[in-house]
Amino acid sequence: MSTIPNFVLNNGVKIPALGLGTYRLKKCDVEKAVRSAVASGYRLIDSAIGYNNEEPIGKTIKKLIDDTSFGLKREDFFIASKLPPNDQGYDCCLKAFSCSLKRWNLNYLDLFLIHWPGTSKLKPSDPMHAENRKGSWKALEKLYSEGKVKSIGISNYTHRHITELLSYCTIVPQVLQFELHPLLYQKDVIDICKKNNIQVQAYSSVGQGKLINGEINIPILKEIADKHEVTTAQVLLRWGYQHDAIVIPKSITPERISLNANIFHFELTEQDMESLDSLSENRHFCWDPTDIY
Ligand SMILES: NC(=O)C1=CN([C@@H]2O[C@H](COP(=O)(O)OP(=O)(O)OC[C@H]3O[C@@H](n4cnc5c(N)ncnc54)[C@H](OP(=O)(O)O)[C@@H]3O)[C@@H](O)[C@H]2O)C=CC1
Ligand SMILES: O=C1CO[C@H](CO)[C@@H](O)[C@@H]1O
What we know:
Elements: E1 6-8, E2 14-16, E3 19-21, H1 27-39, E4 44-46, H2 54-66, E5 78-83, H3 90-104, E6 111-114, H4 128-145, E7 152-155, H5 159-168, E8 175-179, H6 187-195, E9 199-203, H7 219-228, H8 232-242, E10 245-247, H9 254-260, H10 270-277
Parallel strand pairs: 3-4, 4-5, 5-6, 6-7, 7-8, 8-9, 9-10
Antiparallel strand pairs: 1-2
The chain binds NADPH dihydro-nicotinamide-adenine-dinucleotide phosphate and 1,5-anhydro-D-fructose.
């Protein structure tokens, strides 16, 4: 079992540097994946209302806590979920959060993020996106002040969306989650986060599998992995961590879940990091939020 280090958020809360991603984690696979992850030292679980798996993950966590042989308490876990685009706005956000908490069967969440800066119900240029974001953020601040969520944040916000949020927020977001891997090295977003003490959380670190399964061939990645005697997945996750990002690889495969957490025993050199940084080509594996008003 690996020891996963923590980062400390701008409100003093500790968050594991690595967690389990759960997008496309089907209900039938939840128990096996979450148990494997916990056995490998994972404590952070990244879900979303839109992933439709909060309830089974919550049930598995409860079983693990109730089974005293594991010695795990609620406080040992870091449970994160996200507000879907169509539930944006003050009232809708409060309602969606309350339903989410019930599905988890928890008294509080550790982290709640606004999933996207906009919704596909509106044209990208519609100014209502900004209104909705503001209402949602005010709702998150209320939930935070009531202790129903221990940290709050945003996801898929670009530099412009972050600047806008910083102009009116009372609470500076603790976390920004966005797509980050060597083919999409979003340095401007990392920099504005660092400047404002917002923790970066990277998603699709292994390009949804495509950066490591041969679909996209990156010879230098293989060379670096061979040099350090690790896999290409480990190099990509370590690259994120060395950019001070939390990484949340998704897998249902116990061997991969264990291997993905094993990234804290080696270090990429400055030259390795630069070689990987220079691969950036604005390649998104998920939706690109740049055009959202
Ligand atoms: N905020 C947002 O908008 C988004 C957030 N996310 C979050 O980030 C998480 C991770 O991103 P995601 O897009 O899922 O993609 P990842 O880059 O984590 O890739 C997941 C895929 O890679 C495979 N894989 C994982 N590890 C290995 C390995 N060591 N060797 C070979 N294959 C491997 C998995 O296969 P298998 O499961 O079969 O083992 C799965 O198919 C999500 O699950 C979600 O929690 C993701 C996208 C958007
Ligand atoms: O979290 C997510 C996983 O990826 C999906 C497809 O790109 C996104 O829609 C969603 O935001």
